[in-house]
Amino acid sequence: MDRLSAAWYAGSWRAAAHTGAEVSLQPGSQGIGMSGPIDVWREAAGKWTAVCSKVGDDQWNCRTPCVEWNVRALVDHTLEWQATGGALLGASLAAGDDWETIREAYATHLSDPSNLEGAVAEFAGIPKQELAAFLIGDLLIHSWDLARSVGADEALPPTAVEATMTGLQHVPQELLRGRNPLGQPMMGPAVQVSEAASLQDRMLAFTGRVP
């Protein structure tokens, strides 16, 4: 999954990033109030931490929904990208940093809305708000991948799920199913689910996962 943030928050997050004001997401008849990217980050980070704590010593070679990775490779990929992406945002991070270092650096960096002003030249010049949204969404969905792999609780934070799904609906298909600015493949084809499926299941299916 890459750059799902092309319209995450549909512009509302940009305003919150500059002003610190509360934003309301209204993808349908019901909206969700939250105070900006730091709140969604805390939810996603909390879920990742909880799931990682459930990985047993004998589970690192288990397969994952990302067919090319076992659990060890999934965790390594997630931490590498969170560290690399965080550094692109200007956080005090470097490749190889552990999760606690990453978590603390994001919490500090995202607490100051001015840190998300400007663009990221190394990632096709996208706004920092959009890269931050992508990184949070990436962490959220890989939390589910890891939970499915090790038999942990698969429930994701509802507000983060709705924010992510809202953004996914606005990303052009040629980008969503193509490659990111670094040339890496993005999402596979969506999986069909029942119209009665939960929002989380619909989001996962949209990213090519079988809930």
Automatic annotation (TrEMBL):
GO terms for molecular function: metal ion binding. It holds the Pfam family MDMPI_N. Signal peptide: none annotated. Residues 41-135 form the Mycothiol-dependent maleylpyruvate isomerase metal-binding domain. Coiled coil: none annotated. It comes from the Bacteria. This is TIGR03086 family protein. It comes from Kribbella soli. The lineage of its organism: Bacteria, Bacillati, Actinomycetota, Actinomycetes, Propionibacteriales.
